[in-house]
Design goal:
alpha+beta; 6-stranded mixed sheet; about 260 residues
C-alpha cells in the first residue's frame, strides 16, 4: 500500500497539478491538507474519475483535509476528539484494508504571542491522547499530514532563524517527541537517518525554492504494527518546481501487505 500526504494549498487552484501527479505516482491512498474549500465544493468528481473514493472535510477559504482511497474506506472520523467546540477542519480518519489512516493539518501556531500558539499546543495534546487510544487497540495505523513541526535542526535550512517560530519552538518539538515516544515511528527518519536537505516545504518568498531554503514539516507517524510493514518513505520534490505549485511537495510512504 502506497500512501501519500500533500498540503496542496488550495485544491482548486492546484487541481491540474494534483491530478497530473496522482496519474503519474498512482498512490493507493492520498492525504490532502489545506484544501481551502467547503466540503460540498471539493472537486470530488475529478478524483472519483481516477478511481478514488473521496472523503473531504472542509470549511470556507481556510484549512480543510481530505482522504482519497482506491480501496473502500470504513469507520470514518471527521474531527479530532477532545475539543467539541473546535470547528476547524483539520482531521479525517478511516480504515483502509485493515489500516487506520488519518490526514491531519496541525495548526501553524503563529504568531506565538496570540491565541494561535496555545491552540496549536492543545491540538497536539489532543493528537497524543487520540494516538494513545489507537495504540490500545493494537492495530496498524498511519497518521499522515502537515504537522507544522520541524523536528530537528537538520530539518531546517537555518535553525537559528526559526528558533522562536511556532514550528520550531522548544515546546513544539517537545510535544512532537511526546507523541513519537508513545511508541510511534517517524517513517522518513527511520529510513533516512542521516539525510540532509530533505525538505517538504519551501516558502514562496525570497527565492526559497531555487535556493533550497526549505523545512521538513510533512510527516508520517506509524504505529508499531504499521512500522513492521514499512518499506519506503520518500519526498517527491518534482511537483514543487512546477508552475503554480503548492509550497509543499508530496511525501509517500509504502507498506507491505499484512
Amino acid at each position: 500500500m502506497r500512501i501519500a500526504t500533500w498540503n496542496v494549498n488550495s485544491v482548486k487552484a492546484r487541481l491540474p497539478n494534483v491530478l497530473a501527479w496522482l496519474d503519474k505516482a498512482g498512490p493507493d491512498v492520498v492525504c490532502l491538507q489545506e484544501i481551502k474549500c467547503e466540503t460540498g465544493n471539493f472537486p470530488a468528481k475529478d478524483f472519483e474519475a481516477m478511481g478514488y473514493e473521496v472523503h473531504a472535510v472542509g470549511q470556507k477559504s481556510y484549512n480543510g483535509v481530505a482522504l482519497l482511497s482506491k480501496l473502500p474506506v470504513t469507520d470514518l472520523l471527521t474531527r479530532l476528539p477532545g475539543e467539541p467546540e473546535d470547528e476547524q477542519a483539520r482531521y479525517v480518519e478511516g480504515t483502509v484494508a485493515g489500516v487506520r489512516i488519518a490526514s491531519l493539518y496541525l495548526p501553524n501556531g503563529n504568531p506565538v504571542g496570540s491565541e494561535k500558539y496555545p491552540y496549536k499546543l492543545r491540538w497536539m495534546d489532543r493528537l497524543k491522547d487520540h494516538a494513545q487510544s489507537l495504540l490500545k487497540q493494537e492495530i496498524p495505523f498511519v497518521l499522515g499530514g502537515d504537522y507544522n513541526v520541524i523536528p530537528e535542526g537538520r530539518d531546517c535550512y537555518d535553525p537559528a532563524a526559526w528558533s522562536e517560530d511556532a514550528l520550531f519552538r522548544r515546546e513544539t518539538r517537545a510535544k512532537f517527541r511526546e507523541i513519537v515516544n508513545l511508541g510511534l515511528t517517524e517513517a522518513f527518519r527511520a529510513l533516512h537517518p542521516t539525510a540532509e536537505h530533505a525538505y517538504s516545504f519551501w516558502d514562496y518568498q525570497a527565492g526559497a525554492w531555487p535556493r533550497d531554503l526549505g523545512i521538513r514539516i510533512d510527516h508520517f507517524l506509524l504505529s508499531p504494527q504499521a512500522a513492521d510493514r514499512l518499506v519506503a518513505c520518500d519526498i517527491d520534490r518534482e511537483p514543487r518546481g512546477q508552475e503554480k505549485a503548492s509550497d509543499h511537495t508530496p511525501v509517500v510512504v509504502e507498506l507491505t501487505d499484512a
